[in-house]
Every structure is written in C-alpha cells, then in structure tokens.
Amino acid sequence: MPKEQRTFTKEFKLEAVRLARTSGKPMLHIARDLGIADSTLHHWCKEFAQAGEKAFPGSGNPPAHEEELRRLKRELEVTRQERDILKKAVAIFSRNQS
C-alpha cells in the first residue's frame, strides 16, 4: 500500500527553518520534535537559503523556470505523439503502394 505524502504549509516550513537556524539545537532533534525527516528539514533550509522569502511558493504559484519546464515537457509530448501518428500514416500508405 503506497504511503500517503504529507503536505505542509508555507508557515510551517518557515517556522521549522527559523527554529533550525536560531535554536542552537541539532537539526535532527528539531526534525524529530516536528515529526518530519531530518532530510526534509535540511532540504527546506537549503531551499530557504537559495530563495529567501520566495521559498515554498506552493503548487498554485510555481517559479517561472518550473512553469517553463512544464510547458516544454507538454509541448515535447504533443510533438512526439504527432511524430508517431505520421510514422504510422507513412507505413499504412507505403503498404498500399506495393
């Protein structure tokens, strides 16, 4: 049975990062106290260090580069489907020519 992925609010993540930076306790203890994996807390701290207050935008407001990547992946998939259809059409028409 697949494990359900938990989601956390931006406020929770920011508070966890603040605790990790200011409390003086090891990240492992803070993560255990919050009920999250220490790797998760480490990832949040790293993301906050890179993006600052713009970190943790949520699924409704992705960064511009992620939205561009998503758009390009969709476009690539459509292009592949069109290519496959054309290949099949060529195969069908070339069979009728023989």
Automatic annotation (TrEMBL):
InterPro entries: Homeodomain-like_sf, RD_transcriptional_regulator, Transposase_8. GO terms for biological process: DNA transposition. GO terms for molecular function: DNA binding; transposase activity. PANTHER family: PROTEIN DISTAL ANTENNA (PTHR33215:SF13). This is Transposase. It comes from Reticulibacter mediterranei.
